[in-house]
Amino acid sequence: MVDQKASAIWEGELFSGKGTVSLDSSHAAGPLDVSWASRAESPGAMTSPEELIAAAHSACYSMALSNTLNKAGTPPTRLDTSAVVSFEKGDAGFGITRVALTVRGDVPGADDAAFRDAAEQAKTGCPVSKALAGNVDITVDAALA
Length: 145
Prior knowledge:
Blueprint: E1 6-11, E2 18-23, E3 32-35, H1 36-40, H2 49-71, E4 78-90, E5 93-106, H3 112-125, H4 127-132, E6 137-144
Parallel strand pairs: 5-6
Antiparallel strand pairs: 1-2, 2-3, 4-5
Helix pairs in contact: 2-3
């Protein structure tokens, strides 16, 4: 088992307060500024929980797709993945409603159909996708570069 740690400090009330998040295990980033405005209005120069989830999901998905393609005998040269996480107000309040993954791949030996099939398999196999499954609509737009 591997545990990863991140932390947050928040000061003030929700709408006018502000905080920071840090990646404590790797020390690769942080402290990063966060605020309600960066989450629900405009990011400016601050991050949000949703942006951090988008980063985690795009990285996790790329790893899962790389593994799926490799197992199929067509290891990728490059995968360019982005994730858009939607944060919206609904009847029950604010929540994460969708993740739209977009991936373009340089995959010698793979055709479009095989790449799209591998992309769908990776969507269900990615641990971040699994964590979000049943709560968030996840879509994949996959094409060879």
